[in-house]
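TASK: fixed-backbone design
INPUT:
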């Protein structure tokens, strides 16, 4: 596996999960909005991003997903990209703030996951309630509905576990 050195701010952006596909311009804007990137000029940030996109593409960690109708080149991380192929370099610019972008990003990711799990839980509860109602209305299909109901209850239990784990991580962090 070929290793690549990336600054922690860029690594955090690329692995945050918030951007599936991106253009160089979008990544540049996102980078300049980070606490450590605000002191960079637009030109310096653009050069930095373009240089790193080229390095990632050369090493096979970046895929071009531009559609024929699009005039802007779009990228996404290749499936072979993961944290084990990255050597984390020095931060771009040091800050006095103890909340590093990776720490802020980690907590934000946890909160996003928690929000998604809570939405999923609401959906599962609605599904379970609907199975109960339909089972009472149509007793002949009770066996089939009971199987679906049991699967939904299992998903409910797993989702509750995920929510507790995320809440525990967030409160500890």
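OUTPUT:
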């Amino acid at each position: 596996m070929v290793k690549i050195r990336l600054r922690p701010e860029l690594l955090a952006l690329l692995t945050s999960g918030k951007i599936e596909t991106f253009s160089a311009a979008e990544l540049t804007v996102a980078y300049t909005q980070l606490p450590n990137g605000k002191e960079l000029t637009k030109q310096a940030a653009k050069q930095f991003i373009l240089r790193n996109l080229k390095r990632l593409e050369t090493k096979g960690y970046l895929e071009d997903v531009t559609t024929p109708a699009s005039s802007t080149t779009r990228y996404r991380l290749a499936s072979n990209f993961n944290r084990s192929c990255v050597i984390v370099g020095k931060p771009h610019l040091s800050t006095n703030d103890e909340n590093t972008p990776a720490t802020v990003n980690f907590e934000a990711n946890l909160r996003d996951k928690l929000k998604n799990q809570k939405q999923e839980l609401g959906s599962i509860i609605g599904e379970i309630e609907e199975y109960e109602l339909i089972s009472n209305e149509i007793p002949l299909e009770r066996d089939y509905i009971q199987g679906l109901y049991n699967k939904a209850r299992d998903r409910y239990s797993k989702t509750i576990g995920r929510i507790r784990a995320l809440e525990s991580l967030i409160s500890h962090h």
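COMMENT: The helical segments are 8-15, 24-32, 42-58, 101-137, 142-172.
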